[in-house]
Amino acid sequence: MPTTERLSLFFRIVFLKNGYWKLFSLIVAVLVYLAIRSEISHLRVLTVPVEVEYDPKVTGGGAIESVEPRSVQVTVRGSYSEVNQLVASSMRCVVRPKQKKGVLTDTVSVKVDPSHLRGTARGLRVTKIDPHIVVVKLDVPMSLRLAVAPPEIIGKARGRVQLVYDQAQAVVKGSRRLLSPLDKDTVQIQTDMIDVDGRSQSFTTSVKLYPPGDAVNATVEPSEMVVDVVIVSEKKTVRIERVPVVVSQPFADVQRWRTDPEWVDVDVTGRSEVVNAITFGAIIAAVNGNLPPASVAVTNEAPVAIHLHQGLVVDEARPVPQTVKLIPLMPLTPKATEAQALQ
Questions:
Q1: Could you tell me which of 93, 80, 79, 81 has the C-alpha nearest to residue 46?
Q2: Sequence-separated (6 or more) residues with CB below 8 Å from residue 24
Q3: How many CA atoms lie within 13 A of 80 on its CB side?
Q4: In whole angstroms, what is the distance from residue 132 CA to residue 115 CA?
Q5: Which of 122, 148, 327, 335 would you label with 343, given CA atoms 20 to 30 Å apart?
Q6: How far apart are CA 73 and CA 91, in angstroms?
């Protein structure tokens, strides 16, 4: 058999015999390849803050004036699940500028690479960092003692809030260009806010101290202070006037009563923020009208019981007066009682 015919027969066997199955297998293989490539080649761009690790005592004595840029765009590649599990807030870019000896007003450029990143997960590959140069400007150091501003309170506590702390002043250290324009008599060091929402018990917390104004690269010594948050529960008595008195008795009873007086005032004592929020319908005054047969024809003295809306917590709820008179009404006839029951 000639060589041309042999080649023709070979190609017919390879490409035409079971051709549909071979084409189907090829399509499946391509799809599997693309799926795997997509899974291991997912991209994500994150904004990562730039931090500077700099010890002036070791590196040359200068103070950080500015850092540019304050953040970099980091592109990572990896599987879809690994990339999306990455928490951007846990990542940071740490640079360590090396200052020239004896040059306090130096400018240092640091080339950023993946080794400067913190918080990246294993299995991810950093493909790009933009920009890849961080410029750190150094200046003559300066110290300034400033007053600490009172911490701000957020939320509503269950009582009156008092803050007790001993740190009245702190020292700010940083660039002379940034600190020298500050007026130490008016500028204050800021603190973290303290959340007291829903608190009823006193507690102790630590708040971080922040440099004032534009001196974001300055440091504060000490860096935080301890605050005792004292919550004082103020008691108050509020009078809810003219609360109707309800007679509690079985519906089928023939004998009915009216009260004298028909309403009472209620003095409610408790935490001020609770009693001030009490509405008229949150309190019910009731007396027991289920009396023995011997007393249905006479006027009876009955103590008034106060019922509070569910969830309303007070120290005391006292009716004024504490007792009312139960005066019998005309008894209902059996027919009237039956008609009333049918209604």
A1: 93
A2: none
A3: 5
A4: 12
A5: 327
A6: 11
> Which DSSP symbol is given to 159?
S
Question: How many angstroms separate the CA atoms of 149 and 25, rounded?
Answer: 73
3-state secondary structure of 58: helix
Q: Which residues touch 252 (CB under 8 Å, ≥6 apart)?
A: 337, 341
Q: Which residues, including other chains, have CB under 8 Å from residue 251's CB and lie 6 or more apart? A: 341
Give bridge partners of residue 228 from the DSSP assignment.
164, 204
Q: What is the mean pLDDT of residues 116-138?
A: 87
Predicted local confidence at residue 340, as pLDDT? 46
Q: Where are the alpha helices (DSSP H) in 93-237?
A: 176-179
Is there a contact between 126 and 120 (Cβ–Cβ < 8 Å)?
A: yes
Q: Is 118 or 33 the better-scoring residue by pLDDT?
A: 118
What pLDDT score does 11 carry? 56
Instruction: Give 238-273 pLDDT, tens digit per residue.
Output: 999 999 999 887 766 667 788 889 999 999 998 887
Residue 166: both structure tokens together? 């001993």
Length of the chain as a residue count: 343
pTM: 0.55
Please check whether residue 296 is in contact with residue 328, taking contact to mean a CB–CB distance below 8 angstroms: yes
Q: How far apart are CA 38 and CA 48, in angstroms?
A: 25
321 upstream amide cis, omega within 30 of 0: yes
Question: For residue range 73-122, what is the model confidence (pLDDT) as tens digits?
Answer: 999 888 777 787 888 888 899 998 887 776 777 888 999 999 899 888 77
Spatial distance between the Cα atoms of 338 and 253, rounded to a whole number of angstroms: 11
pLDDT of residue 195: 94
Within 77-159, residue ranges assigned H as helices are: 80-84
Q: Enter the DSSP assignment of 23.
A: H
Can you read off the two tokens belonging to residue 266? 């209620």
Cis previous bond, 131, omega within 30: yes
As given in the structure block, the two tokens for residue 74 are 């980091």
- Write out the two tokens for 81: 């699940």
CA distances from 260 to 211, 295, 301, 329 (A): 69, 17, 10, 12
The closest of 112, 146, 144 to 128, measured between CA atoms, is: 112
